[in-house]
Design goal:
The complex is a heterodimer of chains A (309) and B (115). Chain A is an alpha+beta fold and 309 residues long. Chain A is built from ten helices and eleven strands. In chain A, helix 2 packs antiparallel against helix 3. About 2% of the residues of chain A have low confidence. Chain B has two domains: 56 residues, no CATH class; 46 residues. In chain B, strands 1-2 form a two-stranded antiparallel sheet. In chain B, strand 1 and strand 2 form a beta hairpin. The longest helix of chain B is centred in the C-terminal third of the chain and has 26 residues. The mean pLDDT of chain B is 88. Classes of the chains: A alpha+beta (309), B mainly alpha (115). The interface between A and B is large, with 45 and 29 residues.
């Protein structure tokens, strides 16, 4: 960070606000990193310039800076990521156009064809151009994602788009509907509709790949004596036999009760035992535990002690 | 990251809802379409911020914005193709790479007269 903000902007210390504004605009046009993709220096310089202007461009802050009340970094704006970082990383090329290669066929038919194929729009007369892809975003319930569903998207122009959500779809999946995007130009094929799925979390079920996880609270006596309990699964309730002595952290497996994807085999449901004490500890329980503990002490913290010694 | 129009206005800080809608209607920003209106991601936000800087800080006038955007989108498109081409070249055997490099140097020197 340059110490002298006036130097960064290239103005004298007695410059008017108007002169500072003009100097900033001139430098910003030269340096804006999105206008210089790949130039690392431009990004650093532009940030210095913005930081300098954030102070000198504001008469009040400038006066405080002149009086030495704030230093050169005094009002640096929070860092944000520049557009070019997204544009360079974006493989789908949502905004980019490669129409600039359209006249390369005199060099190589082989390669000009490759370059031109992703042209977004425009182009010369008589050339068939594929229509643009259209992007949609669809938020669905956990169980719809797991079991599959039919949804209808209503578009701003009133048209509708029917979407079949395949069973087992994961958060962030992009479904491609061929030919449902913008129409092509000059008889070119239409683009595709790209539907990004986001899945709402479920209060009870958690997903780990094709397996489903669920917490199962047990009473103290169920945990000790074993029990038959009802457990929800993504395809309805099932009866589960909890063996005697099932402590917190024990995992019971319901085979094949996980996600059944369109392709591949079904996952399992993992039932994680959680022992729950009664809400209030009555005198009877207290007396019993006291008596029982004295007779049958045990040490569940052996591991912890070994770890710290 | 999924943002509504209001959240984009909040994140960018220097744009009004009305302005954002105008830019979207002109196709300068192309958010995804959700069930309850447009849905923006981080790239859309960064592009909106760039547009604000072009219009407000650099005083680029309204009519010039599509020209600037079109050129920028072409530059990023060409950069992507060039990177893919270089990656394809880098996967070739070394003698092929060196050959391409020599021919490239010879051509660019002839065209631009650099030493």
């Amino acid at each position: 960070m340059n110490e002298d903000l006036y130097q960064v902007l290239g103005v004298s210390r007695d410059a008017t606000q108007e002169e500072i504004r003009k100097a900033y605009r001139k430098r910003a046009k030269e340096l804006h990193p999105d206008l210089h993709p790949g130039d690392k220096d431009a990004e650093r310089q532009f940030q210095e310039l913005s930081a300098a202007y954030a102070i000198l461009g504001d008469p009040e802050k400038r006066a405080r800076y002149d009086r030495g009340e704030i230093d050169a970094t005094g009002a640096e704006r929070p860092q944000y990521r520049f557009y070019r970082q997204y544009a360079d990383a974006d493989q789908a090329g949502r905004y980019t156009s490669t129409a600039g290669f359209g006249d390369f066929e005199d060099i190589s038919d082989l390669f000009s064809e490759l370059f031109g194929r992703r042209s977004a729009a425009g182009g010369r007369a008589g050339i068939r151009i594929r229509g643009q892809d259209r992007r949609y975003q669809l938020e669905i319930d956990f169980l719809d994602a797991v079991n599959g569903a039919q949804r209808r998207l209503t578009l701003p122009d009133g048209a509708t788009l029917d979407v079949t959500i395949p069973a087992g779809v994961e958060d962030g999946t992009v479904l491609r509907l061929k030919g449902k995007g913008s129409p092509g130009f000059n008889g070119g094929p239409p683009g595709d509709a790209l539907i990004e799925i986001s899945v709402r979390p479920h209060p009870v079920f958690r997903r780990k790949g094709n397996d489903i996880e669920i917490d199962l609270p047990l009473t103290l006596y169920e945990a000790v004596l074993g029990a038959k309990v009802e457990v929800p699964t993504i395809s309805g309730r099932v009866s589960l036999t909890v063996p005697k002595g099932s402590t917190t952290g024990k995992v019971l497996r319901l085979r094949g009760k996980g996600v059944k994807p369109a392709r591949g085999s079904a996952g399992d449901q993992h039932v994680m035992i959680k022992v729950a004490l009664p809400e209030t500890i009555d005198p009877e329980l207290e007396a019993f535990m006291k008596q029982w503990g004295e007779k049958h002490p045990y040490d569940p913290r052996k591991e912890l002690r070994r770890a710290s010694s | 990251m999924k943002l509504t129009e209001e959240q984009v206005v909040e994140a960018v800080g220097t744009i009004s809802l009305k302005q954002l809608r105008v830019w979207v209607s002109r196709g300068w920003i192309v958010p995804a379409q959700g069930e309850d209106g447009p849905v923006f991601d981080e790239m859309d936000v960064a592009r909106t911020r760039l547009l604000c800087q072009l219009r407000q800080d650099m005083n680029v006038n309204e009519d010039a914005v599509p020209v600037v955007l079109s050129l920028l989108d072409q530059i990023y498109g060409l950069r992507r193709e060039m990177r893919a081409m270089m990656e394809a070249i880098c996967e070739q055997p070394e003698h092929v790479q060196l050959r391409i490099r020599d021919v490239y140097l010879a051509r660019t020197e002839r065209k631009f007269g650099t030493e």
